[in-house]
Design goal:
Layout (H helix, E strand, L loop, with lengths): L3 E6 L4 H11 L3 E6 L23 E4 L2 E4 L1 H12 L11 H32 L7 H30 L13 H16 L7 H11 L2 H10 L7
Parallel strand pairs: 1-2
Antiparallel strand pairs: 1-3, 3-4
Helix pairs in contact: 1-2, 1-5, 1-7, 3-4, 3-5, 5-6
């Protein structure tokens, strides 16, 4: 059987895929890629694996799978043996599917906008335009991006008041999928001790042996600020 290869970009969503594989106990190899130090973009070499040149992407034999949610579903279905996903037809399964898609579809866009507008405010610009550009970026953050982040974080804090994990009382791959937006929110989106259930979630996942093994294999992990 061919070995799964994780095309792993530093400080990226692909860290979640390493963690999932460690949780499942599935052998895998890592092919490493480094962000450009100036632009923080993925290298062009990733386009040889997938036309968009993004991470995460895995190869499993003759299959190439991209997009975090698709990779998670593929690995759990093919290698999970019933683990890390609630049984079909249960309320927990519906919540599991919801959080798998919410993580990228709803949680990540305002976090990415936060990063973009912070960089616009701090970036190089002609001296005469710099104050205007900075003011527009800061106003956009204050009037739209930050309220959206607060809305989502308040919602997530309430949801984790219903059960220990996102899909219910058992840890699932949905929690792995949700880890990245919450770690990003702690890095740059205003997540702090004022939301104790979310912070406790991060403490629980960071304590998992498989999470630690994934960090050891994947290397230093620091989300962009």
């Amino acid at each position: 059987m061919a070995m799964i290869i994780v095309h792993h970009l530093n400080n990226s969503r692909s860290q979640r895929i390493l963690w999932l594989l460690e949780e499942l106990g599935v052998p895998y190899e890592i092919k490493r890629y480094e962000r450009d130090a100036a632009t923080m973009l993925a290298p062009a070499a990733l386009r040889a694996i997938h036309p968009l040149g993004k991470s995460p992407v895995i190869t499993d034999g003759n299959q190439t799978i991209a997009e975090s949610g698709a990779i998670v579903e593929y690995l759990v279905e093919r290698h999970g043996g019933g683990r890390l996903a609630p049984p079909a037809g249960t309320p927990e399964r519906l919540r599991y599917i919801y959080w798998l898609h919410y993580a990228e579809g709803s949680a990540m866009p305002p976090l990415l906008m936060k990063l973009v507008f912070q960089r616009i405010a701090q970036g190089a610009a002609p001296a005469l335009l710099r104050p205007l550009i900075r003011r527009i970026a800061q106003r956009t953050q204050a009037s739209f991006v930050d309220p959206q982040l607060k809305l989502h974080l308040d919602y997530l804090e309430g949801e984790l008041g219903k059960s220990e994990w996102f899909a219910g009382n058992s840890f699932t791959a949905a929690d792995i999928q949700m880890s990245f937006p919450l770690e990003a929110a702690a890095a740059r989106g205003g997540l702090d001790a004022s939301r104790p259930k979310l912070m406790a979630f991060l403490e629980r996942i960071h304590a998992r042996p498989a999470y630690k093994r994934a960090l050891e294999r994947g290397g230093a992990y620091a989300l962009l600020r």
